[in-house]
Amino acid sequence: MFGYDIGISGGVTSMDDFLEEFFPVVYERKHKAKEDNYCKYDNQGLQLFTSSLYLAALVSSFVASKVCTKHGRRLTMQAASVFFLIGVVLNAAARNAVPLFLSEIAPVHIRGALNILFQLDVTIGIFVANIVNYFVSNIHPWGWRLALGLAGVPATMLCLGSMVIAETPTSLIEREQLMEGLAMLKKIRGTDNVNAEYEEILHACEMARQVKRPFRNLMKRSSRPQLVIAIAMQVFQQFTGINAIMFYAPVLFQTIGFKNDASLLSAVITGIVNVLSTVVSVVLVDKLGRRFLLLEACGQMLITQVAIGGVLLVNLKSTNELEHGVAVWVVVLVCLFVSSFAWSWGPLGWLIPSETFPLATRTAGYAFAVSSNMLFTFVIAQAFLSMMCHLRAGIFFFFAAWIVVMGLFVIFLLPETKNVPIDEMSERVWKRHWFWKRFMDEEEQDKKDSV
């Protein structure tokens, strides 16, 4: 559902029927023979069509946090799908609940892989949206209406699916349904020998109940490592430039000289790369670890962003078209960029925040992570086409500079969480990290203060 939203917006905003009806100024500018290549889509209203989704999601993520804690992960996903079906774009509720749901039910040794299945579904949603855009672009004049209307299909799937899935043991125990929680834990683990894990969850829930104000507790010194990591991962995820490329892949390919059908086909190609590369992350995340994938991707993304910027700087001026061979190379570079993001910052940006917060502040902390993502997704979506108009090829060097910052952040400030039980992060990760351990000295006092 979320992936379809991401993929469909960029395709619809490049369709002539849509532009002619809602953004005639952009439509006229697009079809002027000598219009500036970098500025033909520079329109704040057009950008708001895409970015408004994330402004709504920013607000709703905090509502979802409360619903998640009080009524459980399962009911939150049901509510999200129903809201979506009646046309209200509040699916950040699902964005809140699903990664937490997966992290809580997963055995520790495959927690990363199971959680990344969520991101895999997002990439499949983007891919499906790209295919829909490709086929409906030739249905005049209502193809764009069909593309937007088909968003109800994944929302219906989520609604029906949420009725048959199990609630997490943690959520059941958190809401004092102890016997149901124990039974569910035995069911999903496939064994009756779950006493140790049950006691860990029970202890975490008892500590969480003592925390009356989870959002206030996030401001305490001992919560700072998890909160900083969660927000930073979301901000950095957006400043890789990925959503700018995925939102506007059809627009980007038109800008470099592809015609409408060819540009949408190119977006389909990047969608395939996105899905297949996310599978790589599912396979490797619990073997190689989070840090390895993030750092490898920083190097690959940096090279491709600089290369794309260099090619366009030299070859694409205001009114010319790229030679076909050069344009193909841009598509290849974009695919290499997308692949590196898809096995690293894409899935891990959601995995790491979902597995680092203690239960007492888990839903509240994750709400901050989601809202940070939505805020900066909104900023990038709203600003990208205007930035491309003013910075021209320099837009790619802008994102490349951020990738350098991201790499340094991972090297010095991001600890490895591979194979660490979710409720043992404090002892085994934060208290042993060279920098973050100084913030954990007051943890015991913070627990007393929160009672």
TrEMBL record:
<keyword id="KW-0769">Symport</keyword>
<feature type="transmembrane region" description="Helical">
    <location>
        <begin position="114"/>
        <end position="136"/>
    </location>
</feature>
<feature type="transmembrane region" description="Helical">
    <location>
        <begin position="263"/>
        <end position="285"/>
    </location>
</feature>
<comment type="similarity">
    <text>Belongs to the major facilitator superfamily. Sugar transporter (TC 2.A.1.1) family.</text>
</comment>
<feature type="transmembrane region" description="Helical">
    <location>
        <begin position="75"/>
        <end position="94"/>
    </location>
</feature>
<dbReference type="GO" id="GO:0015293">
    <property type="term" value="F:symporter activity"/>
</dbReference>
<keyword id="KW-0472">Membrane</keyword>
<keyword id="KW-0812">Transmembrane</keyword>
<feature type="transmembrane region" description="Helical">
    <location>
        <begin position="326"/>
        <end position="352"/>
    </location>
</feature>
<protein>
    <submittedName>
        <fullName>Sugar transport protein</fullName>
    </submittedName>
</protein>
<keyword id="KW-0813">Transport</keyword>
<dbReference type="InterPro" id="IPR020846">
    <property type="entry name" value="MFS_dom"/>
</dbReference>
<dbReference type="InterPro" id="IPR005829">
    <property type="entry name" value="Sugar_transporter_CS"/>
</dbReference>
<dbReference type="GO" id="GO:0016020">
    <property type="term" value="C:membrane"/>
</dbReference>
<feature type="transmembrane region" description="Helical">
    <location>
        <begin position="227"/>
        <end position="251"/>
    </location>
</feature>
<dbReference type="InterPro" id="IPR005828">
    <property type="entry name" value="MFS_sugar_transport-like"/>
</dbReference>
<keyword id="KW-1133">Transmembrane helix</keyword>
<feature type="transmembrane region" description="Helical">
    <location>
        <begin position="292"/>
        <end position="314"/>
    </location>
</feature>
<keyword id="KW-0762">Sugar transport</keyword>
<dbReference type="Pfam" id="PF00083">
    <property type="entry name" value="Sugar_tr"/>
</dbReference>
<dbReference type="InterPro" id="IPR045262">
    <property type="entry name" value="STP/PLT_plant"/>
</dbReference>
<feature type="transmembrane region" description="Helical">
    <location>
        <begin position="46"/>
        <end position="63"/>
    </location>
</feature>
<dbReference type="InterPro" id="IPR036259">
    <property type="entry name" value="MFS_trans_sf"/>
</dbReference>
<dbReference type="InterPro" id="IPR003663">
    <property type="entry name" value="Sugar/inositol_transpt"/>
</dbReference>
<dbReference type="GO" id="GO:0015145">
    <property type="term" value="F:monosaccharide transmembrane transporter activity"/>
</dbReference>
<feature type="transmembrane region" description="Helical">
    <location>
        <begin position="391"/>
        <end position="414"/>
    </location>
</feature>
<feature type="domain" description="Major facilitator superfamily (MFS) profile">
    <location>
        <begin position="1"/>
        <end position="418"/>
    </location>
</feature>
<dbReference type="InterPro" id="IPR044778">
    <property type="entry name" value="MFS_STP/MST-like_plant"/>
</dbReference>
<feature type="transmembrane region" description="Helical">
    <location>
        <begin position="364"/>
        <end position="385"/>
    </location>
</feature>
